[in-house]
Design brief:
Helix 6 links the parallel strand 4 and strand 5. 48% of the residues are buried. Helix 4 crosses helix 5. The longest helix has 31 residues. The chain contains eleven helices and 14 strands. It is an alpha/beta fold. The strands form three sheets. A seven-stranded mixed β-sheet has the order 6-5-4-7-10-13-14, sandwiched between helices. Strands 11-8-9-12 form a four-stranded mixed β-sheet, covered by helices on one side. It has a three-stranded antiparallel β-sheet with strand order 1-2-3, with helices on one face. The chain has two domains: 132 residues, Four Helix Bundle (Hemerythrin (Met), subunit A); 213 residues, 3-Layer(aba) Sandwich (Rossmann fold), CATH 3.40.50. It binds 5-S-methyl-1-O-phosphono-5-thio-D-ribulose (MRU). 5-S-methyl-1-O-phosphono-5-thio-D-ribulose binds next to helix 2 and strand 9.
């Protein structure tokens, strides 16, 4: 399995996803600033992988405070947290991971600074390990939704590159294929940054899965002519009512799927659910630079000075989503009820005594 990011001794090693599929370049760093830039420039990307990177980023940000006192540790922690939180706004996993790391800092006041830094690294590794387990569980649960013979359409990249494990939506595809099901995949290229073409097609080929690359605007025609059995996508943030932010173009696919009576599934770990937001209107949507649209292929493809709107994500309203697959099982509409029930159980599992 490809490791999108891993801890190596005193720093991290990650694959530079902007170089794929032409070059497989790995970067090693012990500098938080390098990691933060890698997140902003999408060298590291995908909501769950961003959570893992954020956790390791906190460790990089505080590791020099071991020689110092608690005050310095807290300052370094806050500086690191603030920097990480400015990298990308939509994927909630990034914020979730920072807050989980903050919990370790606050719960362990009685330990020395060196010990706390050690505990923070253990927590970051736990976040990574748990993400890997969540991917496997999502693959197992989601496999139940996949018929013995299935043509599946997906959007963006939700594989090992986007997570700490085998992926979310893509883990469902690879699990079904590993079970001997007859799987073919149509991968949207995913304009403007081509995560589908550069990353998903590359990963699925490595898995030996039958993949056909299509431009985003071919999806409707493919649903009509090729008889797509299901759509499965990932998520960057899911509101309490099930509205789901994911890569720009996901909403289009959901509308098309509904029109063609094709089930539309979202796959994500519960760390992607933001129960504090009532609906998708409240999800902050990242807008990226115009040149991703006007010079996306290394060559100017639009007039100079043209106005560009380049949101990185859109929000699919819950009524388009047939089911959401998480590591705790499959939830169905009405999501206000099913998500809230599931999250209560998650809290109960994580914190059986109700300790803060
Ligand atoms: O801008 P990106 O490439 O980070 O966007 C990624 C996506 O939208 C993925 O579909 C989402 O994070 C789910 S990844 C398992």
């Amino acid at each position: 399995m490809i490791r999108s990011i891993e801890w190596i001794g005193s720093g991290v090693r990650f694959i530079d996803q902007t170089k794929l599929p032409i070059e497989e370049v790995y970067v090693e760093t012990d500098q938080l600033s390098v990691l933060a830039e890698a997140i902003t420039s999408l060298k590291i990307r995908g909501a769950p992988a961003l959570g893992v990177a954020a956790a390791y980023g906190i460790v990089l940000g505080v590791k020099n405070s071991v020689q110092s006192d608690r005050g310095r540790l807290e300052k370094d922690f806050e500086r690191a947290a603030a920097l990480i939180k400015t990298t990308r706004p939509t994927a909630v996993n990034l914020f979730w991971a920072v807050e989980r790391m903050r919990g370790v800092l606050h719960r362990n006041q009685e330990y020395s600074v060196r010990e706390i830094v050690g505990l923070l690294l253990l927590e970051a590794k736990a976040i990574h390990r748990e993400d890997e387990e969540m991917c496997a569980a999502i693959g197992r649960f989601g496999n139940e939704l996949v018929p013995q013979r299935a043509a599946i359409l997906t959007h963006c990249n939700t594989g090992a590159l986007a997570t700490g494990g085998e992926g979310t939506a893509q883990a469902i595809i690879t699990t079904a294929a590993a079970q001997g099901k007859n799987i073919s995949v149509f991968a949207d290229e995913t304009r403007p940054l081509l995560q589908g073409a550069r990353l998903t097609a590359w990963e699925l080929q490595k898995h030996g899965i039958d993949v056909t690359l299509i431009t985003d605007n071919t999806a409707a025609f493919v649903m009509k002519r090729k008889k797509i059995d299901l759509v499965v996508v990932g998520a960057d943030r899911i509101a309490a009512n099930g509205d789901t932010a994911n890569k720009i173009g996901t909403y289009n696919v959901a509308i098309i799927a509904k029109e063609h009576d094709v089930p539309f599934y979202v796959a994500a770990p519960t760390s992607t659910i933001d129960s504090s937001l009532l609906n998708g209107e409240m999800i902050p949507i990242e807008e990226r630079q115009a040149n991703e649209v006007t010079e996306g292929f290394g060559k100017r493809t639009a007039p100079y000075d043209v106005r560009v709107f380049n949101p990185a994500f859109d929000v699919t309203p819950n009524e388009f989503i047939s089911a959401i697959v998480t590591e705790h099982g499959i939830v169905r509409p009405p999501y206000v009820v099913s998500i809230s029930e599931m999250m209560k159980n998650v809290l109960q599992i994580e914190n059986p005594l109700g300790n803060v």
